[in-house]
Design goal:
Length: 560
C-alpha cells in the first residue's frame, strides 16, 4: 500500500484514517522517501516492525547483530548518501547500545533518525523496574541527539516524525529520536498524514558578504579550509579556489571537496606547510580543528572568514567576518563578488604541485609501511569507491596519506574518534551504495568491536572488504604508553586467526604480508563483490607515528 493510499487523500487535502502508531510512523517514513531501515526488533517495538512488514517491497530492513551497529549502519548510510539514515532499537539498554553511534553522528553532523519504544505508558516514571526501563529516557537521549520526543498518541505520530526529519536535516545536520510506549505503538487512532517540512537555509547577509569579498580580494596568501559542511558546495569551492589560487585544506569530513589530484587540493599535513604564510583564512563548514588545536603558532595578523550554517560556531571561533549560511548559497555569491572586483590571481599550480610533491616525498621517507599499504588500497579502489577509516595507527595515517577525489567517499567518525565504528559503519555505506566498492580499514583492536557483523554482511550480501591491520595491540595506546611511561598497561591483545574466523562466517578470508600482496588480494576481493576480510600482520613500530603530521611542531616565521 502506498502512502497516498494510506492517507486517503482527496480534493480537500489529507484525510484522517485509522492507523496504529506503528503504521503511522512507517507511513511517514515512506512519505519522507525512506526505503532503508536498520533495526533489531524487540517486544516493545513489535508493532513498528510488523508495520514495516506490510511494506516489505518498499522498505529494505537490515538486521545486524548488535544494536550499536543499527545506528552505525544508519550513520554510514547517511554520511555516504547525504540522505537521512533510519534505525530502530528497543528502549533502555538498546538505546544506550546505540548511543555511541548517535553521538558520533552528532559530532560528525550526520542526519540520523532513531525510532525506539518505551515501557508501557502506565508504568513510565514510576521506577517499578519494568522490562528495559530507564529513568527519564527522553532526557538521556537529549544528550546525544539534536532533538528527541515521545509519541504518546497515534494522532501525534505523523507530525512528530516530520519534525524529527526536519530537525535532523536542518541547520547543522544531526541525529534525532522518537520513542513511543509499548502500548501506544500498537494502539489505533484517527491519523492525518503530515508532509515533509521544507528545510529553509538562512539568507546570506549581504553586508558580511561584502566584507568577506574585500578581505579576500586584498589577501596575499589566502587559504581555504573545508569540512563536511562544504561537501554539497564542492564545485563552487573549487571555482573559488581557482579564482583566488588558494590551497584548499581538508582534514577528515572535508576530504574530496577539492580533489587531492588537483594542485589546489591539500591534505592537512601539506596544508601546514602553508600555514605560517597565510594572511586570510576562509573556513567553510568546518570547526577549524586544525587552526585552533592542531597547528601551532597562529600567523601574526591572521584574519578569518567563517561560513557556517550554525551561528554558534561563530561564537566559538570568533572570526573576523561571520557568514551564517549554507555553503551552497554563500560560496557562489562570494565568487560572484570577487569576480566583479578582480580578474583572479595568477596561477600557482606549479608552485603548489611542487610543494605537494616535496611534502609527500618527505612523508614517504618516514611513514612506512603505512603509506605503502594505503597506496596499495588507493591503486585498487576506484575513485568512485568508498573508504571507511578507523581509529588506528594506519587509520590516522589515512587522514593525510590516502588521496580522495570525491566528497562523501572518505567516511569518518570525526572528532568523536569512536573506536570500533569502522566495520559496522561500512556495512551501512554498502547498503546505501550497492554497486560501489567499499573498503573498511581497521586495526585489530577496533575491528574486534564489531567482528560479529561479518554475519550481517553475509546475511544481507553486503560485499564490503575489511582490511584488518594486526599489531596485536591497541597500537596507538601502546605507543603512547611506552613513550610517556616507558611501559604498556592494558594495550596488548590476543587475536583469532582472522582469515579462518571470516571463513567461519561464510566470508572470504585472505592474508597479505606486503603492500604488493595486499594490492593483488584486494583487487580480487573487490572484483568478487562478496563479503571478505584481508588480514595484514604489521608489527607495531613505535618510532613510526602519524602524530608528527597530525600534531606538527612549529615552522619558521612567514617568508615575505
Amino acid at each position: 500500500m502506498s502512502i497516498g493510499q494510506v492517507s486517503g487523500e482527496g480534493h480537500g487535502g489529507p484525510i484522517s484514517v485509522e492507523r496504529t502508531t506503528g503504521q503511522a510512523l512507517v507511513d511517514g517514513l515512506l512519505g519522507h522517501g525512506v526505503d532503508t531501515v536498520f533495526g533489531i526488533p524487540g517486544v516493545q517495538s513489535y508493532a513498528l516492525f510488523d508495520a514495516m512488514a506490510e511494506h516489505a517491497g518498499e522498505i529494505s530492513l537490515f538486521v545486524p547483530r548488535h544494536e550499536q551497529t543499527c545506528a552505525y549502519m544508519a550513520f554510514g548510510y547517511a554520511q555516504s548518501t547525504g540522505r537521512v539514515g533510519v534505525c530502530s532499537v528497543v528502549p533502555g539498554p538498546g538505546v544506550l547500545n546505540a548511543s555511541a553511534a548517535l553521538l558520533t553522528a552528532l559530532g560528525a553532523s550526520t542526519p540520523v533518525v532513531l525510532l525506539t519504544a518505551e515501557i508501557p505508558s502506565a508504568y513510565m516514571g514510576r521506577g517499578l523496574g519494568h522490562l528495559h526501563e530507564m529513568a527519564d529516557q527522553l532526557a538521556a537521549m537529549g544528550h546525544f541527539t539534536k532533538w528527541a520526543a515521545n509519541v504518546l498518541r497515534p494522532e501525534d505520530a505523523p507530525g512528530l516524525l516530520a519534525e524529527a526529519f526536519h530537525r535532523a536535516r536542518s541547520g547543522r545536520p544531526g541525529p534525532t529520536a522518537l520513542a513511543a510506549p509499548w502500548d501506544v505503538l500498537g494502539a489505533a487512532g484517527q491519523v492525518t498524514p503530515v508532509a515533509p517540512i521544507p528545510v529553509v537555509a538562512p539568507v546570506v547577509d549581504e553586508q558580511a558578504l561584502g566584507e568577506a569579498v574585500e578581505m579576500l580580494a586584498g589577501a596575499r596568501n589566502p587559504m581555504i579550509m573545508v569540512g563536511g559542511g562544504a561537501r554539497d558546495a564542492a564545485p563552487a569551492v573549487l571555482s573559488l579556489a581557482r579564482h583566488l589560487q588558494a590551497p584548499v585544506v581538508s582534514f577528515r569530513a572535508g576530504r574530496g571537496v577539492v580533489p587531492d589530484s588537483d594542485p589546489l587540493g591539500f591534505s592537512s599535513a601539506t596544508g601546514f606547510e602553508r600555514w605560517a604564510d597565510t594572511d586570510v583564512l576562509l573556513a567553510i563548514g568546518t570547526r577549524q580543528e586544525l587552526a585552533w588545536f592542531r597547528w601551532p603558532d597562529r600567523p601574526a595578523g591572521l584574519r578569518t572568514i567563517n561560513i557556517d550554517i550554525d551561528p554558534t560556531q561563530h561564537e566559538r571561533l570568533e572570526p573576523t567576518v561571520a557568514l551564517t549560511a549554507d555553503a551552497v548559497d554563500a560560496v557562489p555569491k562570494l565568487l560572484d563578488g570577487l569576480r566583479a572586483q578582480t580578474a583572479g590571481a595568477a596561477s600557482r599550480a606549479a608552485e603548489f604541485a611542487g610543494l605537494k610533491e616535496r611534502a609527500a616525498a618527505e612523508r614517504a621517507a618516514v611513514m612506512q609501511p603505512h603509506l605503502a599499504y594505503l597506496a596499495a588500497i588507493r591503486d585498487v579502489l576506484p575513485l568512485s569507491g568508498f573508504f571507511v577509516e578507523e581509529i588506528s595507527q594506519i587509520g590516522f595515517s589515512s587522514y593525510f596519506g590516502f588521496p580522495v577525489d570525491d566528497p562523501r567517499h572518505f567516511i569518518t567518525a570525526g572528532y568523536q574518534g569512536t573506536l570500533g565504528f569502522g566495520y559496522p559503519t561500512s556495512l551501512g555505506v554498502k547498503a546505501g551504495n550497492r554497486s560501489a566498492p567499499v573498503v573498511s580499514l581497521s586495526g585489530d583492536g577496533g575491528f574486534m568491536f564489531g567482528s560479529n557483523e561479518l554475519a550481517t554482511a553475509v546475511q544481507h550480501d553486503l560485499g564490503v572488504v575489511a582490511v584488518v591491520f594486526d599489531n596485536g595491540s591497541f597500537g596507538n595506546v601502546q605507543a603512547d604508553q611506552e613513550r610517556i611511561f616507558g611501559r604498556q598497561s592494558g594495550a596488548v591483545l590476543t587475536n583469532p586467526d582472522f582469515p579462518a574466523m571470516a571463513r567461519s562466517f561464510g566470508c572470504e578470508g585472505y592474508r597479505a604480508e606486503s603492500p604488493d600482496q595486499l594490492r593483488a588480494t584486494l583487487d580480487k576481493a573487490l572484483a568478487d563483490d562478496r563479503p571478505a576480510l584481508v588480514h595484514v600482520p604489521m608489527p607495531l613500530d613505535t618510532t613510526t607515528s602519524p602524530w608528527r603530521y597530525l600534531m606538527p611542531q612549529s615552522r619558521q616565521a612567514p617568508v615575505e
